[in-house]
Amino acid sequence: MWSSGDVFSEYLQFASKRGYEGEVAELYRGQEDKFAGLGRIGLSDYVEQVGRDINILSRGKKYFVLGHSLGGLIAMIAASRKIIQPEAMVLLIPAAPRGIPSMTISVMRSFSQIFAKTLWRREQASISFAKACYAFFELVPICHRWRIFQNFVPESSRVIEEVGLWFFDKTKSSEVIGQNISCNVLVIAATQDRIIPAKVVKKTFRKLDREVPIGFRVDYREFPHAHWILSEPGWEEVIGFILSWLEEDFSPSS
Fold first, then answer.
1. b/e for 129-157, b at 16 or more Cβ within 10 A?
2. What is the pTM of this model?
């Protein structure tokens, strides 16, 4: 959420050294004004666009998908709708799907300004630097926080509503049907995350563990990180573990 593809730069460089070719799926790639009417765009639009992008980028190759935060939820939905069919899926602190309560005190504090300004107004939503530091950058060195924040992009207020306030969404756009997922899944939580606490991520894991068909693994791992696990000190341990997990069944040369 609010992130562009550049947030994966460290992970992609690390994976490249292990022989993996990585691509980033970007919403509205190539559009002249990609944020026009953004507030009216829904979660299902995100899922369809990302799914098309992944299928184009994979070009018929074997691939796995890694999604962080909202991207993790998008990956789950796309896989459960059979829009994408990866060999494996890594959900890195995924936003919770429909049916899983996620409104903790820290989440409400993080989103209070956004709900006050844009709730039900179908407008672009932005987060302040102070709120971003509280919600995302707790373990990011202070000297790096502004640089990361400057690369943030607007978000759809409709998507925020459909994810955070799913009980009002009659279209059930954040619903994940685990029985339709046909790949191994790794779910990763961060023990110090304020925006998607580990206890919420664990509920997502339990849902998938119950629903994903027998024959596919659903594994869970926690790391002592906060939400910006992509580049906090010690991020190398996380991506290293992900690649080792993948290589149990899937290798870059296969």
1. eebbbbbbbbbbeeeebeebbeebeebbb
2. 0.91
